[in-house]
Specification:
Hypothetical Protein Aq_1857, Chain: A; alpha/beta; 3-stranded mixed beta sheet; 106 residues; 8 strands
Protein backbone atom coordinates (compact mmCIF):
# COMPACT_ATOMS: atom_id res chain seq x y z
CA UNK A 1 0.00 0.00 0.00
CA UNK A 2 1.03 3.63 -0.29
CA UNK A 3 1.74 6.12 2.48
CA UNK A 4 0.86 9.80 2.21
CA UNK A 5 2.60 12.20 4.59
CA UNK A 6 0.59 14.94 6.34
CA UNK A 7 2.26 17.57 4.11
CA UNK A 8 1.21 15.68 0.97
CA UNK A 9 -2.30 15.19 2.35
CA UNK A 10 -2.62 18.95 2.87
CA UNK A 11 -1.38 19.70 -0.66
CA UNK A 12 -3.80 17.17 -2.18
CA UNK A 13 -6.72 18.53 -0.15
CA UNK A 14 -5.85 22.05 -1.36
CA UNK A 15 -5.84 20.90 -4.99
CA UNK A 16 -9.18 19.14 -4.60
CA UNK A 17 -10.76 22.15 -2.86
CA UNK A 18 -9.46 24.41 -5.64
CA UNK A 19 -10.89 22.24 -8.41
CA UNK A 20 -14.19 24.13 -8.44
CA UNK A 21 -16.20 20.93 -8.93
CA UNK A 22 -16.69 17.61 -7.16
CA UNK A 23 -13.93 15.09 -7.87
CA UNK A 24 -13.82 11.34 -7.28
CA UNK A 25 -10.23 11.57 -6.10
CA UNK A 26 -6.62 12.08 -7.03
CA UNK A 27 -5.31 9.71 -9.70
CA UNK A 28 -1.78 8.51 -9.05
CA UNK A 29 -0.16 6.77 -12.03
CA UNK A 30 3.07 5.53 -13.54
CA UNK A 31 3.66 6.31 -17.21
CA UNK A 32 6.39 5.62 -19.74
CA UNK A 33 8.80 8.52 -20.10
CA UNK A 34 11.20 10.61 -18.11
CA UNK A 35 14.98 10.37 -17.97
CA UNK A 36 15.02 6.89 -16.43
CA UNK A 37 12.15 5.25 -18.35
CA UNK A 38 9.13 5.66 -16.05
CA UNK A 39 7.60 8.75 -14.50
CA UNK A 40 4.96 9.55 -11.92
CA UNK A 41 1.76 11.31 -12.85
CA UNK A 42 -1.08 12.84 -10.85
CA UNK A 43 -4.42 14.26 -11.87
CA UNK A 44 -7.79 15.05 -10.36
CA UNK A 45 -10.44 12.63 -11.60
CA UNK A 46 -14.15 13.27 -11.94
CA UNK A 47 -15.00 9.55 -11.98
CA UNK A 48 -13.56 6.36 -10.60
CA UNK A 49 -12.79 3.44 -12.94
CA UNK A 50 -14.33 0.06 -11.97
CA UNK A 51 -10.91 -1.59 -11.57
CA UNK A 52 -9.24 1.24 -9.61
CA UNK A 53 -7.55 0.50 -6.34
CA UNK A 54 -8.89 3.14 -3.94
CA UNK A 55 -6.64 4.26 -1.09
CA UNK A 56 -8.31 6.33 1.61
CA UNK A 57 -6.23 8.55 3.88
CA UNK A 58 -7.57 11.27 6.16
CA UNK A 59 -10.66 11.80 4.02
CA UNK A 60 -8.71 11.69 0.73
CA UNK A 61 -9.39 9.23 -2.08
CA UNK A 62 -6.39 8.22 -4.17
CA UNK A 63 -7.20 6.24 -7.32
CA UNK A 64 -4.62 3.85 -8.77
CA UNK A 65 -5.05 1.75 -11.91
CA UNK A 66 -3.97 -1.92 -11.62
CA UNK A 67 -0.88 -1.54 -13.84
CA UNK A 68 0.44 1.45 -11.87
CA UNK A 69 -0.32 -0.34 -8.61
CA UNK A 70 2.48 -2.84 -9.20
CA UNK A 71 5.01 0.01 -9.34
CA UNK A 72 3.53 1.96 -6.45
CA UNK A 73 3.23 -0.70 -3.76
CA UNK A 74 5.10 0.59 -0.70
CA UNK A 75 5.68 4.11 -2.05
CA UNK A 76 5.63 7.11 0.28
CA UNK A 77 4.42 10.42 -1.13
CA UNK A 78 5.58 13.64 0.49
CA UNK A 79 5.23 17.32 -0.38
CA UNK A 80 8.28 19.49 0.15
CA UNK A 81 9.11 23.17 -0.10
CA UNK A 82 12.78 23.97 -0.53
CA UNK A 83 15.17 26.28 -2.35
CA UNK A 84 15.32 23.69 -5.14
CA UNK A 85 11.58 23.76 -5.67
CA UNK A 86 8.19 22.86 -4.33
CA UNK A 87 6.31 19.70 -5.16
CA UNK A 88 5.55 16.08 -4.54
CA UNK A 89 8.39 13.67 -3.79
CA UNK A 90 8.10 9.91 -4.18
CA UNK A 91 10.13 7.47 -2.09
CA UNK A 92 9.71 4.21 -3.99
CA UNK A 93 11.31 1.02 -2.63
CA UNK A 94 10.58 -0.72 -5.96
CA UNK A 95 12.72 1.68 -8.01
CA UNK A 96 16.00 0.19 -9.20
CA UNK A 97 17.35 3.58 -10.16
CA UNK A 98 16.34 7.13 -10.85
CA UNK A 99 17.45 10.42 -12.25
CA UNK A 100 18.60 13.65 -10.66
CA UNK A 101 15.21 15.37 -10.96
CA UNK A 102 13.51 12.76 -8.76
CA UNK A 103 10.49 12.56 -11.07
CA UNK A 104 11.65 9.55 -13.05
CA UNK A 105 12.68 6.01 -12.11
CA UNK A 106 13.33 2.55 -13.51
Amino acid sequence: MIQITPAAQAAIKGAIEGAGQPVAGLRLMVQSGGCAGLKYGMSLELTEAPDDLVVKAEGLRVLIDPQSGTYLNGVTIDFVTSLEGTGFVFDNPNAKGGCGCGKSFC
